[in-house]
Structures are given as structure tokens and as C-alpha cells.
Amino acid sequence: MNLMRGSWLRLTGQALVLSALVLGLTAPGWPGSIFLTGHDPDFHAFVGGNALGAQHINQVAVGFVRDAAFNPFVGVGSRFLFVESAIAPPGGHVIGKNGIVASGFTEGVDFEHHTAATLNAELNELGTTYDAIVIASDFGGILTQAELDILNARSADIIAFLNAGGGLYAMAESNSGAGLTPAGGHFDFLPFVVSSTQLNQGEAGFTVTPFGAGLGLVDADVNGNASHNIFDGTFGLNIVDVDAAGRIMSLAGRGQVGDIGLVPEPATLLLLGAGLAGLGALRSRHRR
Length: 288
Description:
2 domains; alpha/beta; single chain
């Protein structure tokens, strides 16, 4: 039985490595850089107990989805599309754009801000004017149902943009606070994100995963403010950080967007295959 298990692990690892090599040969440009979070760093980068931590989340997330090594649309003059309403902020909310600016991004140079009034037209510019989409939070920031409905209706276009190499960063969606998204549809512009749960909590005891640390985040970045939703699955993405109870706060990854999530880029498959192969070899040696 142990011998059979070790053999199966080695064969599985070899098969995954081979699959990754084949995919790497047939898919020269692996697309889709996505960062999703239940934090609202658009708010807390501007006000809150840990502005520097929130600013760093924004910087890391935007940097991830606009990494020129993976995003072919990043170039001279390209910018990201920031989606948020222009209503007067209700109590408990601020203009999320201010947090983006506080994080070091300049409107008109690094990004353009568009509301529901102009969003449909601007989404036609994905891959030309815009190399990524950044979506404000609906509690903390002032994303409203009007913007969310347009994003959800244009899901196919957004996914096509991602599958051509574009990026997307979306902050907390929960209909908390003033209830700006009462009809729901949270994260439905990525329909594979089938389960996010409203959860308002102070950030204490949150931890960054090894993947999140690899992006440059530290535990201090994800504590000291508040968060508003958790994710109930990974959908092919990697966990960036978790709350004190181990619930998923943020997800990120690169790959082909499919019906049930992301197909990881070849490098991820290679690491997984090598890990399984190594595990099989280690168990085999241990039982000799």
C-alpha cells in the first residue's frame, strides 16, 4: 500500500510537470492578474488607524495587476481605470479615490476615475487606454449599485480583457455601512467568485501567508484598520492573508479565467508538480 502510494505521488507529480511544460509551450502569454480583498484600503489609506499599512496594500495590489512582466498592456501612457461613484460620502464612508491618491497614484497620470455615467464607454478602452481595472470598496469607499451593475453586465468583456493579459484589483464588497449596493451581485463581474460573506471586523491577529509575503506584504499591513467581507473559497487563486480565525481575507493569482476559477500559470503547475514528486520521493526513502 505504501509503495503504491509513493508511486502514485511520483507519477502525479511527473504528470503535472509534463502538463505544465506542454501548457508553457502552447500558451506563450499566460494572462489574467487578479487581486481581491475584503479590506477597504481605499478608505484606510486616507483615514484610519494604519494608513501606511492600507497604502501598502494598495501599492502591492496595483503593482501585482500592472506588472509589465505579465501584463502586456502596461506601457508609456497606459493607466488604470478606477471605478467609483461621485456621490457625497455617507457617514462611515469617504471618497475612495483619495486613498488611491494617498497611496502614491496620480489622477490623470496613473489612473482615470469614472462613475456609472461614463463607465460603459470607458470599459470599451480596456487594453488600449487602460491596462487594469481598480474597483473601490462599497463600504469605506463609495462604489454604488450603479457602477457594480455595469461591471457585472460587462463581465464577459472584463474576462476577455483579463484573458488577454489585463489586470483587476477589487476591494471589499458587502453592502455594509450606508448600504450602497443593496441589490447585491458582489464580485459578479468575476462569476466564479461564488461565495463571499459580509463580515465587518476590526483587524487584529490577521496574518499574511507565505504567498502574501512573497508579494511584499507583512502582518503589520493587514492589521489596525477594519475589513468587511471574507471569501469562502479560493477559486484557483492564492490566499494572501487570513483573519484571526483563519478565514480568507484576500486572494490573488494569475491564469486563464474559466467557468470555475483560474487555471494557474505554468510556473504554478511546475511548483505543484515538483512538490508532489518531491513528497513522493521523500515518503519512499522514509519507508525503505
